[in-house]
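Long-time lurker. I teach an intro course on protein structure, and each term I like to show students one example going from raw sequence to a predicted 3D structure in token notation. This year I'd like something fresh instead of my usual example. Would anyone be willing to generate the tokens for the chain below so I can use it in lecture? Attribution to the forum is fine with me.
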Amino acid sequence: MALKHVNAVVIGSGAGGGVVAKELATAGLSVVLLERGRWHTPAECRKDDLRNQRTNVLGNGFGPDDERHPRVVVDLQGRERVVRASEGGYQNNAACVGGGTFCYGAMAWRFAEKDFRMRSTYGAIEGSTLEDWPITYQDLEPYYEKAEWEMGVSGDDSDNPFKGPRKKPLPMPPMPPNREFEILYPAAKRLGLHPFHIPMLRNTVPYNGRGPCMRCRWCVGFACEVDSRNGTHNTVIPKALATGNCELRTRAMVSEILVDDRGRARGVVYYDENDRRQEQTADLVVVSCSAIESARLLLNSKSKLFPNGLGNRYDWVGRNLQGHTYTGAVGLFDFDTYDDLGPGAQIAICDYNHGNPGLAGGALLANEFIRLPYQFIQQVPPFVPSWGLAHKQWVRRAYRRTIAVQGPTQEIPIFDARVQVDPKVKDYWGIPVARLSGGRHEHTIEIGRFMAAKAEEWLKEAGAIRTWRRNPARGLSAGQHQAGTCRMGNDPKTSVVDKFCRVHDVDNVYVIDGSVHVTNGGFNPVLTILAIAYYASDHLVREWKGRKGRV
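-- Reply from a regular --
Happy to contribute to a lecture. Here you go:
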């Protein structure tokens, strides 16, 4: 039996798709929200370090599963291999209701004004596709505010002179300082820097009917057992469902977008939880699958009118894949720095996001989230053996006496960092998998090294008796901050979607997630994804009502 036709089908329930589903449903549109993963609950997700750390090669507790979702990765030497979702090269993002917002660190940064004007600020960079966004900070400011207040953001950035203007403060206060904050704050002030409390999508007081953070050590990569970390799963999606206009279908793997003879989308094909092929027709299709999977879906949506994939007339779908190289430093102290208060990360500076001589951008610098004992291997310095008695002795001595400072380096986009669909390897349902290739621009490496040196300087001023840097690698960057593969722009020949996230070639298909980012800033991108989702949805609803529902 055919499924009932709806006004909109939204693919993916993360930061982008969750907001879009809520905005459309509350505006009166009938919506089907398709999510390839499950709706997890904290009760299902025991505090198991090896199982739940989705960002670690030891596991990806919130999907996708290894057996059904392989990818192909091509390294800088041209060697290719099939990778599983639990392997580092996979560039994973969680696959569940809420997407990455279910288990992320929840830093809630607005991009800086210059982040939207990188080409105008720094000029052309050889070998890159650096460009300005077609929208400005001012265009997004009201939607940043809406995300902060509807989702719930805590913190205090009033001491950050480098932020863009805001009309309202954050709705919740920051957490009381932890030990690392108390150590790093006076050191930053002595260096003439401007430290402040990190904005986070995390309750510090009761907000929207849910309680505050209990400050446990199991945070990033885990389910929040007190439901105080704010994602789409516990904010906007419940509101969408409460309207009666939105239906959520989980374990729904979308294989292609269907188009009619006029070149307009008529719906999607997906495989349901019983692996049955289904067709869901709709007036509008919104793709919010994350940068890698959104590009993969468009490329797999081939037809007579779009032989190279939907929106790919000029070969821009899948190009300019970016994430963030995290660079910084670790400091060893001769006193205890660790107090076991989650989430750990609390203090940041934005002094180096822009204005660095000879560099096109920079990054925020912040202390890190609590590292669980098995993760501490990532902080063992190069002068310590990687195994054996000396290794164990160093870890035992240093675990409570180290501080890591790092940040997400602004990446310089390049055309050949990309997502394709593999000609041979297919997933469980027979859908061609994502094929990832390319690397980082040389200038990204320069920026990352500069940021590592600045992090080390801060740690030394704070009293570190020994420091070591984390410098960037040259391989492909994507991961949980993946972006850029369906960039927005005014020219269809050099972009995939317009400034309202509508695919240039198909006026009833939208891409609304990190894919549309022209550049990815020197910040965690989730608040910008949320803001763009509110912004694009606002336009979509106004246009829908202007047409009185006609498409």
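Some talking points for your students: The domain at 1-149+224-314+486-551 is CATH 3.50.50.60 (FAD/NAD(P)-binding domain). The first strand starts at residue 6 and ends at 11.
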